[in-house]
Design goal:
Bound molecules: ligand F0G
Number of helices: 20
Strand content: 5-15%
Number of domains: 2
Distance between the termini: 33 Å
CATH topology of the largest domain: Aspartate Aminotransferase, domain 2
Oligomer: single chain
CATH superfamily of the largest domain: Type I PLP-dependent aspartate aminotransferase-like (Major domain)
CATH architecture of the largest domain: 3-Layer(aba) Sandwich
Strand order of the largest sheet: 2-8-7-6-5
Helix content: 40-55%
């Protein structure tokens, strides 16, 4: 797990960076946390960070930036067109991702918008390992349909399978035969499949997908938002690649895809996103949409300072000391909690530690959103803000019925290089208390539900007065302490 060996201590992950700018945190009392989560409609997206102690909502735009990124931001060449900052970014994309053409977008979902608008005809299918919320929304927005073809192990939450993000290649061949290739828009592969617990795919699997795509003349679109960490786990878990550098692995992955898009908010600890390809025809089809929806071709809606940070951040994905921090800390948290009997998604993935809410809250029916309830309950007892990744994040069918999510997860994101080990231990301690008191957690129901991406702004309410009872138990057990 560690690049260093300890003398007598049990191994633990160690930071290969030091903090030089810090932000003060506040832990508000449980009574305030109760009021805050009620005001937020039991949706952690709607909490103010004033009431949040450790913000584990997401790694998106919250990874720590490096001194070199901040230094580069001071040199930004602020020009509407022809900015030299963009030239640096283009060079970084070419060198790190191995793609010649690059279109900048204001963030990852904007790249999804452009790709879907260009490549999907109404009624076409997009087979994939697994969806991400915004990708699904953009595919359906243009009349496409998704088909999720994960390997059988993927949804077994406690598993030892190293690559649960693998697509099932038999299912993929069958899907292409069944629909016929002209009805397939492209194959989408997501690095470190976000919604099933940040689980990687293997290079062996992607190579097979390429072989199948070639047979049917289909394109592969890679969501590379979490590619650095996926590459790190390939190095750790796939024997053929253990002696290769992260740079070699990243290029091996991207060379198997026709189009690579990403959220720079995740991949390179900055802002923005983009689409990279070596396919000039596809590039030229997408190019006119950038000035229409994003901004001129040399900024794409991203601030020029952030373009500089993105270029440096892309090179930093090649540094194992940088990339391993997130998976190593996650492994520490997942293994420590699993050891206490808390149902965690295993093997540990990337992005965050994921709690299996359906097992944690087995008394809460899925129709009452156990992952949403767990996210609220955990905030209440800790001030730690996680994110629901379950049926609240799902959608309704044509009859207006909830489509239950395959998995109900509480995601505790560990943005890169942000939290210390003691803060992680605090979160683990409070999660253990909540596990011991899990019978006090109750369900939720919607009171306000937006028509798309409802998890962002939706409001819920508890089905009973369980939050008050949980807060009272906290006071009883912890006295006057925070
Ligand atoms: N693809 C993946 C795999 C993502 O995780 C995200 C964002 C996007 C695309 C969209 O990128 O936010 O820049 O528009 N994930 C964030 C998260 C929101 O919290 O997991 P974006």
């Amino acid at each position: 797990m560690n690049p260093i060996t300890f003398y007598r201590s049990e191994p633990f992950p160690i930071e290969f960076h030091k903090a030089r700018i810090v932000q003060k945190l506040h832990l508000v009392p449980v009574e305030r946390r109760l009021a805050a989560i009620c005001q937020a409609g039991f949706n952690t997206f709607k909490l103010s960070t004033r009431d949040v102690f450790l913000d584990m909502l997401t790694d998106s735009g919250t990874n720590a930036m490096s001194d070199n990124q901040l230094a580069a931001m001071m040199q930004a060449d602020d020009a509407y067109a022809g900015s030299q900052s963009f030239e640096k970014l283009l060079k970084a994309v070419q060198e790190v991702l191995g793609k010649t053409f690059f279109l900048p977008t204001h963030q990852g979902r904007a790249a999804e918008h452009i790709i879907c608008k260009t490549l999907i005809k109404p009624g076409q299918i997009v087979p994939m390992n697994y969806h991400f919320t915004t990708a699904l929304a953009h595919i359906t927005e243009v009349g496409g349909h998704i088909e999720e073809l994960l390997c059988d192990h993927a949804l077994i939450l406690q598993s030892a399978h190293p690559f649960k993000g693998n697509i099932d290649t038999d299912k993929l061949e069958h899907s292409i035969q069944h629909h016929s290739p002209e009805n397939i828009a492209f194959i989408r592969m997501e690095a470190s499949t976000n919604l099933i617990g940040g689980q990687p795919f293997s290079l062996e699997n992607l190579t097979q997908v390429r072989r199948i795509a070639n047979q049917h003349d289909l394109k592969i679109v890679l969501d590379a938002s979490l590619l650095g960490e996926n590459a790190f786990l390939i190095q750790q878990r796939e024997a053929a690649w253990q002696h290769k550098s992260l740079g070699d692995i990243i290029q091996a992955v991207t060379s198997l895809a026709d189009i690579v898009y990403f959220s720079a908010r995740k991949l390179s600890s900055s802002r923005g996103g983009g689409i990279a390809t070596n396919d000039k025809d596809t590039y030229l089809k997408m190019e006119p949409l950038i000035p229409l929806y994003e901004g001129f071709l040399t900024y794409g809606g991203i601030s020029v300072k952030e373009i500089e940070a993105m270029a440096v951040g892309l090179y930093e994905t090649l540094d194992p000391d940088n990339i391993r921090q997130n998976p190593d800390f996650i492994a520490f948290m997942v293994n420590g909690c699993s050891h206490k009997g808390i149902p965690m998604v295993t093997p540990p993935g990337v992005l965050g530690a994921h709690v299996d809410a359906m097992t944690f809250c087995e008394h809460i029916p899925q129709s009452q959103y156990p992952a949403g309830a767990l996210a609220s309950a955990f905030y209440l007892c800790s001030g730690v803000r996680g994110m629901e990744r379950g049926s609240v994040s799902s959608v309704r069918d044509e009859n207006g019925d909830d489509i239950p999510a395959d998995v109900e997860l509480l995601r505790l994101a560990l943005p890169r290089r942000v939290f210390t080990l003691s803060q992680i231990k605090y979160a683990m301690d409070r999660l253990e208390w909540l596990f011991d008191n899990r019978h006090l957690i109750g369900g939720l129901r919607f009171t306000y539900e937006p028509p798309v991406l409802r998890f962002f702004m939706g409001s819920l309410e508890p089905v009973s007065d369980w939050p008050q009872k949980l807060a009272a138990r906290f006071r009883k057990d912890f006295g006057n302490s925070l």
